[in-house]
Amino acid sequence: MQQQYSKQENSKDFEEFHNIEELKELFILNSINDGTSFQKVIRLGGDHGLANQLKSHLLKGIDSEAQVQENRIRFGNNDPVEKEPAKLWELILECFGDTMLQILLIAALVSTIIGIINEGIKTGWTEGATIFLAVFLIVSITAGNNYLKERQFQQLRRKLDDGMVQVVRGGIVEISIKEIVVGDILQFGIGDIFPVDGMMIQGSQIKVDESPMTGESDEIKKLPYNEMSQQQMKNSKDHHHYSPFLISGTRCLDGNGYMLVMQVGQNTIQGQLKQLLNQDNPPTPLQQKLEGVAENIGKLGTLVAILTFIALMGHLLIDVFIDHKHGLLTLKSLQLIIEAFMIGVTIIVVAVPEGLPLAVTIALAYSVGKMKDEQNLVKNLASCEIMGGANNICSDKTGTLTQNIMQVTALWIENRVYQNQEINITSKISKQSIGIMSESICYNSIANPTKDRDTNRWTQIGNKTECALIELSDNFGYKYSNYRLNDRILRQIPFSSKRKKMVTAILNPQNQTIRIFSKGASEIILAQCFRYISNNGTEVLLDKTKKDDILHNVIENFASQSLRTIAIAYKDLEPQSQAIKGFVNAKAHVHQINEEEIDKDLTLIAIAGIKDPIRPDVANSIRQCTKSGVTVRMVTGDNIITAQSIALECGILEKNRAQSEFEVIEGKKFRDLVGGLINGKNEEGNEIKVVKNMQIFSKISREMKVMARASPEDKYLLVTGLIQEGNVVAVTGDGTNDAPALKKADVGFAMGITGSDVAKDAADIILIDDNFSSIITAMKWGRNIYDCIRKFIQFQLTVNLVALFMSFTGAVILKQSPLNAIQMLWVNLIMDTFASLALATEPPSIKVLDRQPYRRTDQIVSPTMYRTIVGASLYQIAILTYILFLLPKFIDCSIPQELIGQKYPHNVVQMSIFFQAFVLMQVFNSITCRQLDYHTRNPFANFCNNPLFWIVQTITVIVQVLLIQYGGKYVKVSHLNLFQHLLCVAFGIGGIIFSILFKFIPEQFCQKIQLFREEEIKTEKMDDTLTSKLRRKSTMRLHTSQRSKHDLGSMKKMSSDKL
Questions:
Q1: 950-954 LR contacts (CB < 8 Å, sep 24+)
Q2: % of the chain beyond a pLDDT of 70
Q3: Residue 177 near residue 248 (C-beta atoms within 8 A)
Q4: For residue 875, what pLDDT is reported?
């Protein structure tokens, strides 16, 4: 390290900082911009004073391990801020915390005891074993899925935390990023992302991309503290573009140097943002709707269970006090009471829809796997279904709509314009012109982009404009690395905002002439040219008429396409010219030429039009979003002209149409009009952030498509207001500055390749390929998830209504439930677990994108669904009532000869037919429930698009037949003959025929049918509902889970401990 540090007067008294908060204040962006932070550093003793207070040295760094440990204890370590993932046993215990599962386990125990008392140990355990099997299925699917999901994204969060850096600790040493401590002298170079906050103490030509933190795409020049001190002495006031402060999460574009580390871990700007993102998630729209549906189903089931128990108790009292069959305080009475209780519990087991959250979990888990294949990596399962209702997408421009890389899309060379792919057709351009242009680009640049050999993908490091030109020359076969470290470079005058051009002088080895390459702002370079390269590489005189033609038809034409124009030119200094006469050393001669004279009288080679290109499928994706009823809004830090041009190109704004007042608006104007955010209260009285002037906001939001010059606060304000209006909002972004809005939104999308670590942490879904069009995939699967849940509810409501009606009827009239406990639990598995697998894994149809998104206020059970439910229920109740009371009058239902004398009731065949018909009608009804389309009457539409559905139904039928034929003493049934089996199949087929006929009832007659009220359950009341107490509080509902609250409390405690 060279000794380039500022000198401090040893006798001068300086301030001392007393806590970490004072160091944090140095990195507040506004304080950096207005110079407050720099003045504070001066008062603290400058770079020397700060290093001394941090027990470090500007040359030696921290030179002892003991001091490293002391600083780590005093200022904290650089561990990433993240939640500790739950262990598998914790997730399993969480599942067993579900009251529904506890009831199932109690029922299993009671069933086992009763079975052993009645039938002995040999067969008495079967009922309990069936219940334990149901518990095992629910726990294994739910806990296992959550465990794998958490482990997967733990690795994702840690991906960027495994790097190595070089620090000065007596000498240069390499350590892990996690081992950095406050006071370290950290070495950095081109392309590095700063892992900590600090102040530059040495460096040259440092340029930083702060867009991940500030949203501004301009390069920010950084100066070491000593150079800043010299500027202070000259009364310079430009602190924003020349500051020594380096912020975590930003990237070094150019230069190299050393920084004094001042903030690590959660105390850095990046770390503080991560802590803010560690907050509870609100309930999803579907969860709130399902809570209302489940509440009503649960209430009905509980009521029927109570009435059934009362009816059975009434029969018991009649037997005891009227018929005097047995005494009240006898073992027989106790057994009947326990059996009545078992029937009531079994009805609750069937009625309370524990299969509803299971169906959601299976649908989401299935969708997550498929979405990953389509470039959507889902972090938050619930975000999948939310996308089904998303009606607003607020998208960042750079890195989301555009590729975040500069690219040459237009090229004027040899007096002709080439656009896009034409540029790479070398046969149309002479080799001489390609050669001199490419050599000019390679020599006359300082950017260092890298190219992946496997993917041919470029990583742009350094000036993005130069990177675009270097990629162009690479396409023509010229590698810039072959020209950089070359002793032929005689002199280089870097680009400056004043000169707006860069010049490089080289020694031409062919004829020992000096060649001057110049590139820069097109108007300036054009004015210095007197020749241009025309067809076949010949040089032609450039007169005023031709200059005007190039200015209007090339430069201004490129600019109107939102292209940055760069002119490339050259000239040769001939050996015999007067300029070098008497000079033997060409290098010495070139350095003596005045900067203003060195690049006059140039020959114009080419003019490049450079832009940050729109992603290939963005325009089509936005058209699809519009067709699907989704409004796309672009929120960018670019100026309003560029933003408007990009929006027109990608289809956010319509061409050839007058714009409304607020269709394109700047962030400051938007913020001033709506008044920003204020503290308010929601309906439950909780304090939240709300938009101050919602009336103006609503007017703006109806028109606004583009917000330019937007700050992160503006984006957060927009998302807050849209959600406040009742919209379901998705936000896309790649920078750290996008993170608060990503977290606030209903669904946050981050870019997998160009996205910052903080943005990925905040997002719900990561777009692996950084493609905006992958959002269409999320929309498609989101809407499909909603449809799958509707199909499942349509099926489950039918089974519930029929099972509850028949159980109560049988208990009142026959003094027993038509289905015993084991049969009822088998039905429960069919309508919950099996139906979840069959109906929740339906693949999406492209037609789902042709309709409007579901609104928060839409009923989850539509009138058309009620038509299907009521029709199927009426048919099944009629058939089952016939079997229960009339069937023996028409067919032989006598007990088989081999069962006579065993412990079977006299009507066992009739009850077996009832059981068989009931199950087969549910199988055929599941086929009908696959159709949600209002106009599709054919139940076999899309017959083969879901093999898993048919596998599940086949397994159900096979198991059902085996239970009937061979499970007699376990399931309490009798085997059936062929005619009886075919009769049950006929009843099932009849259900499909009846459902087709029922669909001919005009739809308007179904509008008033509403079996259940769908009240959206508020967040605070979700854990107080009946069904919440009878089922698991899912890990998807993080807003109410105790584990989430505990984690958040631990995070806050850790933060306060470190401070």
A1: 952/834, 952/837, 952/838, 953/838, 953/923, 953/926, 953/927
A2: 77
A3: no
A4: 94
* Residue pLDDT, tens place only, 897-922: 777 767 677 888 999 999 999 999 99
Angle between helical axes of 355-373 and 285-317 (0-180°, round to 10): 150
Cα 121 to the center of its chain, rounded Å:
54
Query: Which long-range contacts link 586-594 to residues 24+ away (Cβ below 8 Å)?
Result: 586/490, 586/507, 586/512, 586/514, 587/490, 587/491, 587/507, 589/514, 590/490, 590/491, 590/505, 590/514, 591/490, 591/491
Residue 514 has what DSSP assignment?
Answer: E
DSSP state of 1005: G
Contact in structure between 271 and 1058 (CB atoms under 8 Å): no
In whole angstroms, what is the distance from residue 406 CA to residue 607 CA?
A: 15
**Are the beta carbons of 455 and 554 closer than 8 angstroms?**
no
Determine the pLDDT at residue 571. Answer: 92
pLDDT one-digit tens code per residue, 645-693: 888 988 999 888 888 899 999 888 999 999 988 888 877 677 888 899 9
What gap in Å lies between CA 382 and CA 789, rounded to an integer? 13
Residue 530 tokens read as: 């007197």
Q: What is the pLDDT of residues 437-487, one digit of tens each?
A: 999 999 998 777 888 877 788 877 767 788 899 999 999 999 988 887 566
* DSSP conformation class of 614: B
Determine contact, residues 731/719, Cβ cutoff 8 Å: yes
Asked if residue 787 lies in contact with residue 842, where contact means CB atoms within 8 angstroms, the answer is yes
Place of tokens 């777009």: 767
Residue burial 734-759, b: 16+ Cβ < 10 Å; e: rest? bbbbbbbbbbbbbbbbbbbbbbbbbb
Tell me how far apart the alpha carbons of residues 808 and 306 are, in angstroms, rounded to a whole number: 10
pLDDT one-digit tens code per residue, 558-592: 877 877 789 999 998 865 554 444 334 576 677 67
- Whether 396 is catalytic: yes
More confident residue, 489 or 628: 628
Q: Does the model's pTM come out above 0.90?
A: no
Handedness of CA 312, 313, 314, 319 (dihedral sign): positive
Asked if 195 and 211 touch (Cβ cutoff 8 Å), the reply is: no
What is the distance between the alpha carbons of residues 242 and 228, in angstroms, rounded to a whole number?
Answer: 7
Rounded to whole angstroms, the Cα distance separating 335 from 787 reads: 45
Is beta strand 489-493 parallel, antiparallel or unpaired with respect to 501-508? antiparallel
Distance CA 690, CA 957 (A): 55
Say which of 47, 184, 197, 396 is annotated catalytic. 396
Q: Which tokens is 288 given?
A: 């709130």
Mean pLDDT of the chain: 79
